[in-house]
Amino acid sequence: MAEHPDRADLILRHEPRERVLHWLVAVTFLFAAASGLALFHPALFWLAGALGGGTWSVVLHPFVGLAMALLFYAFARPLWADNRLTPGDRVWLRGLRDVVDGREDRLPEVGKYNAGQKVLYFVLVACLVLLLLSGLVIWRRYFAGYFPGRVVRLGALLHAFAAFVIVLGIVVHVAAALWLKGSVGAMTRGTVTLGWAWKHHRAWFRELVRPTGGR
Predict the structure, then answer these.
(1) How many CB atoms within 10 Å of residue 138?
(2) Is the residue at 4 inside a domain?
(3) pLDDT for 38-52, tens place per residue?
(4) Residue partners of 214: CB distance under 8 A and separation at least 6
(5) Is residue 105 part of a domain?
């Protein structure tokens, strides 16, 4: 079990590499979302002022979006195995009310990620793939000229749809992290308490203690 070197009641949940990539993705997402919203509708153009103006928003949005996609790939690829859905995850989703009410003991034991986190993981993967492909199609300076106008218009529509879904998903992600005490600290310090792991991710906790817990 990966214990904290100074505190035996803490265990490592997120490696430094994972945490750094997570926050880099978050920063690039904020810029891409703000610049995208500024370009999407005139009522939101005021967001461009915080990003250096409309010209910089237009120029940097696709490059930052590309950087976000690459960073997310580096972040998400090692997590693929831990996010595979299982029959127990379906039961967990059906019992979401028990999770909200703090009755997680009524549900199947959770591994490193619960079913809600897994669903968000695949939603983000799907949306970022769609954003990347549609973004290339509508990138006027380099690629849009290679596609018929109707394809570019369809790409713009899909880009807006995927952006809406991913923004909604991130809002839910942030709200859930703030609601579940200890989640934000896990992604800043990297550690959680033994009690937190036992309560919220019991199957993962059992996996961690198995090597030193005897057979």
Answers:
(1) 20
(2) no
(3) 989 889 899 998 888
(4) none
(5) yes
Closest by CA position to 120, among listed 189, 167, 73, 51? 167
Structure tokens at 15: 């490696």
117, 209 Cβ separation under 8 angstroms = no
pLDDT in tens, 6-45: 566 899 999 999 999 999 999 999 999 999 999 898 898 9
pTM over 0.85: yes
Identity of residue 106:
R
Residue 54 near residue 38, CB atoms below 8 Å? yes
- 173 catalytic per annotation: yes
Cβ count near 24 (within 10 Å)? 16
Catalytic residue among 14, 61, 159, 173: 173
Q: Do 71 and 28 form a contact (C-beta atoms < 8 A)?
A: yes
Phi, psi of 142 (to 5 degrees): -120, -35
Helices (H) and strands (E) in the chain, counts: 9, 2
d(CA 23, CA 21): 5
Q: Which two tokens stand for residue 213?
A: 């817990």
CATH number at residue 57: 1.20.950.20
User: What is the domain range of residue 43?
Assistant: 10-213
Nearest-angstrom CA–CA distance, 63 and 172: 26
